[in-house]
Amino acid sequence: MTPAVFQARAVTKVYQMGDVEVHALRGIDLDILGGETLVLLGPSGSGKSTLLNIVGGLDRPTAGRIRYRDRDLTTASERDLTMFRRHAVGFIFQFYNLIPSLTARENVELVTEIADNPMPAAEALALVGLADRMDHFPAQLSGGEQQRVAIARAIAKRPDVLLCDEPTGALDITTGMVVLDAITRVNTQLGTTVAIITHNAAIAGLADRVVTLADGRIASERRNDYRVGVDAIAW
Amino acid sequence: MLAINRKLLRDLWRTRSQALAIALVIGAGVAMFVLMLSTFDSLGLTEQRYYERYRFGEVFASLKRAPLALGDAIARIPGVAAMQTRVVVDVTLDVGGQPAPVSGRLISIPDEGRPVLNDLFLRSGRWIDAFRDDEVLVSETFARANHLDAGDSVAAVINGRRRGLRIVGLALSPEYVYAVRPGELVADDARFGVLWMGRKALATAYQMDGGFNDVSLALEHGASTREVIARLDRLLEPYGGLGAIPRAQQLSHFFLQSEIDSLRGMGQIVPVIFLAVAAFLLNVVLTRLVAVQREQIAALKALGYSNAEVSWHFVKWGLAVGAGGGAAGIAAGTVMGRNMTAIYTEFFHFPVLEYHLPAAVVVEGMAVALVSAVIGALGAVHRVVTLPPAEAMRPEPPARYGVSGIERAGLRRWLSQPARMVLRNLLRHPVRAAMSTIGIAFGGAMLIVGTFTIDSMDQVMDVQFNVAQVYDAIVTFVEPVSARAGDEVRHLPGVLDAEGFRAVPARLRAGHRERPVSILGLPSPSALNRVVDATHGVVRLPPDGLVLGTKLAELLGVTAGDLVTVEVLEGERPVRNVVVSRLVDEYMGTNAYMDIGAVHRLMQEGGSLSGAYLAVDSGAEPALYRQLKNTPAVAGVGFRRAAIDSFRNTLAESVSITRTVTILFAAIIAFGVVYNTARIALSERAAELATLRVIGFTRAEIAYILLGELAVVTLAALPLSMAIGYGLAAMTVTAFNTDVYRLPLTVTTHTYAVSLMTMVVTASVSALIVRRRLDRLDLIAVLKTRE
After folding, report:
1. CB contact under 8 A, B301 and A82
2. Model confidence over B664-687: pLDDT tens digits?
3. CA within 20 to 30 Å of B609's CA: B2, B77, B274, B647, which one?
4. Contact status, residue A217 vs residue A43, Cβ threshold 8 Å
5. Quick check: pTM over 0.95?
6. Dihedral, CA atoms, A171, A177, A179, A182, nearest 10 degrees?
7. How far, CA to CA in Å, does B130 sit from each of A55, B86, B127, B162, B171?
8. CB neighbour list of residue A8: distance below 8 Å, 6 or more residues apart
9. What beta strand segments (E) does B70-127 contain?
10. ipTM of this predicted complex?
11. Distance, in angstroms, between A226 CA and closest chain B CA?
12. Number of CB pairs < 8 Å for A and B?
């Protein structure tokens, strides 16, 4: 068994929204294993984004522990978390979060310029099939192309783990499939651990393991005996 | 170039109009700073060079007459490095083109070689020939004002005899940079001239052979001026010494110095306002930029950029704007400083022009620009640091609004829906709305400060020439004359009324403080020259005691009821303790008054008069002038109308330069604030306004919502600008409080009106520019972008 890259133990997260306390996570225990593709499934408000943000070092749990390999992210300093994100994590967001004032290549360079052992930006873009669109600005790209730039940006640093938050949420079926194909190829070809959160159960077929969240708790967990290809997903 | 820096460049380009508006404000502030301080430095340097090269004295003394041998004793005073004795005589001149008599001062220069001190710069012509007793050098300013040149002649009444003097050259002296006739406050180049004449010729004409009546000293390095003056006064006392003064009190130097000093003051106060406004604008724009880019910031953080790196990215935006504004300001300030120095050089008739831009001013100018930029960026930095990346990844929640207090107060039903939106939006950012209001108000306030001095000058002129000095001419006698002789002026042609006065040179002493003054004895009540208090109007002199101007009282540290020691420097030189019976708040000079009877008692003399004020029938002026020019007893004649003209000219000149610059820059401030406020509002509300357009609002209606906010802010700024303007004017008045004149705090309705109008126009222009953008609002695109 591959050792766990992430270990979450009794992780809870409480937000103060005005006068109301919102319990986003209520005691999550979860391991993410090296090299696997994990899908976190759940309806909106189930806490899956919160969990992903905590795993990615963007947020801290209210209680509980989260470890990345031999490091404790719960007690890590702001600087350590920044370095963790810079070197270990690749993020892919639902709304791509590209810098609109930078071209595709420059968006990727944003990362390669600060990472330790990055691949050339052009290579990362070629991996997602955008070799000929490198000098376009985000506004000149379609949604799927933008998301693929985001993937190139995430993988260019050769991250240990790729965290994807609703990567196809804003895309139509066809483009969504192109994007998912790019993500799965990162997993299979580069061996990068991938965690995808989605409310779209169809995507679960791509995963080695599927964890379902509901109301801040893990509702179920199952392992797929075999992963289906992107083209076999039934939307 | 790093990708993040490319982002910076493109951000700058996209926000260029706002960046430019802010850079303009910063540039204006830095330009003012560089302008004022480089001119200050250049004038100081020019003055210093001029003084050094032409050996300007450091101690000056006048006396009645002393034998030349006393000069040796003076030269032996410890600390004296050089000494120059002279013969100085005030005369009446008859200048070809001038119908009126003109005051002249004849100063002796050595027959051989140059003066040891107070040397002359020969502008044109040649030096005098010692063998000819009618050759003179004339001050260039006087020659120019009267269209005189080498080869021309003027007539002087010298010791009762009319003599022709041939001008052989035009000269400038460090001693008369500012040629002010004694007893007056403004240089009048046409009616007061300095002439230099060979020592022997002048001494012979005035029976000063083997004697002198004026001495200047240069001191050794480190010598005590105070000590030297005390010893000099003791030596001169038996010879009618009028009290030695240090360079600081020498009239020309004193005027020059106070002019230069005021530049420094302005150079330090004014730019602060600009840079504060610039910092505020930068804060607003950058904060908005951070808000617009919150998801980009979150992404950068998620990608592994640290808070410091992201913050630095936004600070660099501010620094770029600051550096751009600073560089432009330094360039503009240098050009303006060079021009201003040239204008002043012309104004003061310096023989050399030395424009010097100190490296420190450049560095400081750039530093203040950058510091204000960084201060302005701090708010943005705070937001960047506190922005939680996880949260920022999600679209911004709807802004929190509330029902405004005004609406709750029951006005709700009177407000239309758009009006409510305007109101609620303003109240959602109360601090920002308040700061915008204050920023615009400062623009208007600057306009008031830039223009109110004219109002104050008018007030001074009105009091000085319509209430106080209502005489047409003032005649001063060579020596005090008896009341009966003085009365003869009454019978001169065209004289409607005459009033004698007695002026006595004296030193006032209170404790360790002292001040040389001329105590003016006036009849009480006086019809032609009245003592006027700024608040209480015409003051009637008490039968006994001194009436002091508040400035003089302040310099002496005394107030009404105190005793001061009066050391008279004329005649029997009595020393008396005299009570200060009251103070008068005056706009000009440091004056001391007494009832003329009290002066006579102090001097233990009969009804001596030093001169007389005349009311003249204007039709008979030419006859009067002819007579005065040929009256030996008359040392000088001054005219009220000429004084008014030269006062107006002098002040108008020095005020108008700074005024023009201030007004221009004030408009920049107002524009910068209004334009930025409008652009930010447009950026924040584009989606909302587009939605309104889609559901059927017209362009005019959405413009009303957006610009209504601007209108409220601008309208609120109007009364505030009046208040701030008044406050700044009060500060300026305090800064202008010199021994020469005090400005009253007068701001007319006209000044307020001009300022308010300018702001309304500036705001309207900014609004129009934004309105044009609003009209081009791409509805589809705006609704598609997720903000």
Report:
1. yes
2. 777 787 788 888 888 887 887 777
3. B647
4. no
5. no
6. 180
7. 102, 15, 9, 21, 17
8. A28, A29, A30, A31, A51, A54, A55, A64, A65, A66
9. 80-86, 88-94, 102-109, 121-125
10. 0.83
11. 32
12. 90
